[in-house]
Amino acid sequence: DTDIFQTKTLETGKTCVFFFIIMAGLFSCCFDCCDRGNSGHVALKEMPTVQLNTSHMGTDVVIVKSGRRICGTGACLANAPLHQNKSYFEFKIQSTGVWGVGVATQKANLNHVPMGRDAHSLVLRQDGTMYHNNEERNRLPANSLPQEGDVVGVSYDHVEMNLYLNGKNMNCPASGIRGTVFPVVY
Hints:
Domain B30.2/SPRY: 9-186
Order of helices and strands: EEHEEEEEEEEEEEEEEEE
Radius of gyration: 17 Å
Strand content: over 45%
Pfam family, one: SPRY
Shape: globular
Number of domains: 1
CATH architecture: Sandwich
CATH class: Mainly Beta
Protein name: SPRY domain-containing protein 7
């Protein structure tokens, strides 16, 4: 099996990050498990490219570069929900500043950052805290705060969100969000 990488460039004020989504089945093709023709072949269906969704972003957000870059103040959801049992995406911090990444429902308030203030978002903030429903759910170790050039990975299994820093599991789970969620970034 091959992982499918979609590179996304995002920036918020002075913060600029690269955003990679790795979810092979969701973003490149999916198998039609009902092979009605009994031909022994599995039909593949092309799926849309994952990008930032201009229909689900803050009012002061501008999406440029064909849905690959976010500018302004606020957050934006990706255009595809996390449907698999396990999903993973990551981003690279290009410069320091205010940023956040995680998962959110379409009911999240994308105009107010930092996110994690309501029941509709679960995010890692630039200070290493993970927030959901205005409660700190976990925190990265003080010596493991993401810095410029670091890659932060997010895995989500519909119960728990886990974080990775430069490929290393931070053993920093957080949970609580319910419903259909999308990658979110600000």
